[in-house]
Design brief:
binds the ligand O=C1O[C@H](COP(=O)(O)O)[C@@H](O)[C@H](O)[C@H]1O, 17% strand, 3-stranded antiparallel β-sheet, alpha/beta, Rossmann fold
Length: 251
């Protein structure tokens, strides 16, 4: 297992500032090289940390973004559990329409009662943007980390960790509610050009330490090993308190 670089920040505000700089740079590089920026984001605590500085960053050309969800709960888009709703409330609603609705790739709301079909439909949405010939290579995945070491909706010990063919898979028995979800799978996650985990707070410090210092656990976050991309962590001081080795992010 290759160890991920960990950038630790003294506060959640400075974490958001560093993350803003990182996303701005990757967005600019991707748009310069191939005209668009493909990014998938997690739900949970991440959208708030992301939006703090990014929402008002006029140097980012959101009109060229294609925004996907790293995982989604099978609920209506206006349901309190929806990852989309959190991203909408924290980020999209603050962009004044700069990111076109057509480029925000939500799950199909008419399929939420059928996770299997919902996952197939979402995989087709990926094909529409990336083409169907080869595994999508996202410019950036912004991922959260659950206190059990899960990421996306890929949970420790779950058979979905071994999925090799599907790009998007349904899950019917998520240990964290709601049970029914869809998620990007490891073939897609590990084909990304860049992956950044974003996590903060004391509640995450034990798991952050285990992930960095006990590779033998083979937890979902540790299995994120992009084949030819980079993986790093943006954490605050509280989440990194038990780590012996962190790096300073240079703005
Ligand atoms: O259920 C989920 O949890 C994870 C972690 O969330 P957090 O609130 O502990 O940051 C999140 O990354 C994922 O997208 C979400 O569906």
């Amino acid at each position: 297992m290759t160890l991920h670089t960990v950038y630790a920040f003294p506060s959640t505000d400075s974490l958001s500032e560093g993350l803003n700089d990182y996303v701005e740079r990757l967005s600019r590089e991707a748009i310069n090289s191939h005209g668009k920026f493909t990014v998938a984001v997690s739900g949970g605590s991440l959208p708030k940390l992301l939006s703090k500085n990014l929402a008002s960053n006029n140097a980012v050309d959101f009109s060229k973004w294609h925004l996907f969800f790293a995982d989604e709960r099978c609920v209506a888009l206006d349901h309190a559990d929806s990852n989309y709703l959190e991203v909408k409330n924290q980020l999209l609603s603050k962009l004044g329409g700069k990111l076109p609705d057509a480029n925000v790739h939500t799950i199909n709301p008419s399929l939420v009662s059928d996770p299997e079909k919902s996952a197939q439909d979402y995989e087709q949405q990926l094909k529409n943007v990336f083409g169907s010939d080869s595994t999508p290579a996202f410019d950036l995945l912004l991922l959260g980390m659950g206190p059990d070491g899960h990421t996306c909706s890929l949970f420790p010990g779950h058979p979905l960790l071994e999925e090799k063919k599907k790009w998007v898979a349904p899950i019917f028995d998520s240990p964290k509610p709601p049970k029914e979800r869809i998620t990007l799978t490891f073939p897609v996650v590990n084909n990304a050009k860049n992956v950044a985990f974003v996590t903060a707070g004391e509640g995450k410090q034990d798991m952050v330490k285990q992930i960095q210092e006990q590779p033998e656990l083979n937890l979902p976050c540790q299995r994120v090993q992009p084949k030819s991309g980079n993986a790093c962590w943006f954490i605050d001081e509280a989440a990194g308190k038990k780590l012996s080795k962190v790096q300073k992010y240079k703005l």
